[in-house]
């Protein structure tokens, strides 16, 4: 195949053989950045797929828990006690020092106002839009973008993506510009040539690519006669050799050390219908790597940083027949950072008895997950309650909400 025949459509089709290694690359992972007049930093991580909060932080010694989840119950020696009834999943052990330092916390039994249909697409749209659209119309903007419209001297950038939609979270009237980092944060000539070939006949993509390249530091040039399929294999090798998500964190941290004050991106892999122990292990380690990379790279700025990790819904209280869990309702939000009042499991625990479960199947949500994002924003940026309740998260009631920022 000649270079001139290698269209963007053919790239997307033929790159499917690269599988998850390419899917982990920041080239196809949306990232949103915003600068504001504040000196604090907020990182929002969307955990796509429906995190099983009961497996991450659970009352593992509770008799109802062990009855509902016999094959998911951790070994007693491996679970990490958090005080009281709760234990943390052993694959978050790397984050335990943050818990002890008061820089890690959890909000349990939380959910958006979304109920009953348990669709990833609808759930994620509502999570990123920050409101329920009762008239059935499509969401047009996200809560992060609406926040920026009420913050002085703010400017947003949202990542350009290959084969993926942009993040609704940052979509809206606030000014947007597009860019895309690569897995090494400095686009190689191989990857650059591949993308130039792919987008040469598409003005929109070509211009966005040019802007992306302007934000990277190209490495030493090589021959422009590179075969496109060879280039894809080289890009895949880079993705296999490196942790894509950790590099997203490194890119975000580099920006947060400069003018950026708000960063958002997503981590996939939380849809654990089968073999949950194995799948969740990978996902939790990815999340741990991201958090620790942010802490390490931010240095003293970490003291002014809060990370809010949110998911579209929780999972069923009972395990299923394939040693996994299905789409549920009440879930868990993970809160991290030097600015956080951590070492707490926030929320009102509903219990796991049959009569306590939502529709007899799910952890019953007792608090709105949006409230924790709102209180992080209020605590760090001073945004007033009326703006948060009416404009950023329409319909949210912050009366009695917990202060989570130091």
TrEMBL record:
Transmembrane segments: none
Pfam families with a match to the protein in the record: DUF1501
Protein name from the UniProt record: Twin-arginine translocation pathway signal
InterPro entries with a match to the protein in the record: DUF1501, TAT_signal
Domain of life where this protein originates: Bacteria
């Amino acid at each position: 195949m000649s270079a001139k025949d290698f269209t963007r459509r053919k790239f997307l089709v033929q790159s499917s053989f690269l599988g998850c290694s390419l899917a982990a690359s920041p080239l196809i992972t949306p990232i949103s950045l915003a600068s504001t007049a504040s000196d604090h930093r907020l990182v929002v991580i969307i955990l796509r797929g429906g995190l099983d909060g009961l497996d991450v932080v659970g009352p593992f010694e509770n008799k109802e828990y062990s009855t509902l989840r016999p094959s998911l119950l951790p070994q007693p020696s491996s679970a990490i006690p958090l005080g009281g009834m709760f234990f943390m999943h052993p694959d978050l052990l790397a984050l335990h020092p943050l818990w002890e330092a008061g820089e890690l916390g959890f909000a349990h039994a939380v959910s958006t106002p979304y109920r009953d249909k348990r669709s990833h697409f609808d759930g994620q749209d509502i999570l990123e839009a920050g409101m329920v659209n009762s008239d059935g119309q499509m969401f047009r903007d996200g809560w992060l973008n609406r926040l920026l419209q009420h913050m002085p001297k703010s400017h947003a950038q949202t990542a350009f993506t290959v084969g993926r939609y942009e993040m609704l979270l940052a979509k809206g009237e606030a000014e947007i510009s597009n860019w895309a980092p690569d897995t090494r944060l400095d686009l190689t000539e191989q990857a650059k040539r591949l993308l130039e070939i792919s987008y040469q006949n598409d003005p929109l993509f070509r211009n966005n690519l040019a802007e992306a390249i302007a934000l990277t530091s190209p490495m030493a040039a090589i021959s422009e006669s590179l075969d496109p399929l060879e280039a894809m294999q080289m890009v895949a090798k880079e993705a296999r050799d490196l942790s894509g998500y950790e590099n997203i964190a490194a890119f975000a941290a580099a920006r947060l050390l400069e003018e950026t004050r708000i960063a958002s991106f997503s981590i996939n892999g939380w849809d654990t219908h089968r073999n949950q122990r194995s799948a969740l292990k990978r996902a939790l380690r990815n999340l741990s790597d991201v958090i620790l990379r942010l802490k390490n790279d931010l240095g003293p700025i970490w003291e002014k940083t809060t990370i809010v990790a949110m998911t579209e819904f929780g999972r069923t209280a009972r395990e299923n027949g394939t040693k996994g869990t299905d789409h549920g309702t009440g879930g868990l939000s993970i809160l991290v950072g030097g600015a956080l009042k951590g070492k707490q499991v926030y929320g009102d625990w509903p219990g796991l008895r049959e009569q306590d479960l939502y529709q007899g199947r799910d952890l019953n949500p007792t608090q709105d997950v949006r409230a924790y994002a709102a209180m992080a924003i209020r605590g760090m940026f001073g945004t007033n309650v009326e703006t948060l309740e009416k404009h950023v998260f329409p319909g949210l009631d912050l009366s009695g909400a917990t202060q989570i920022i130091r």
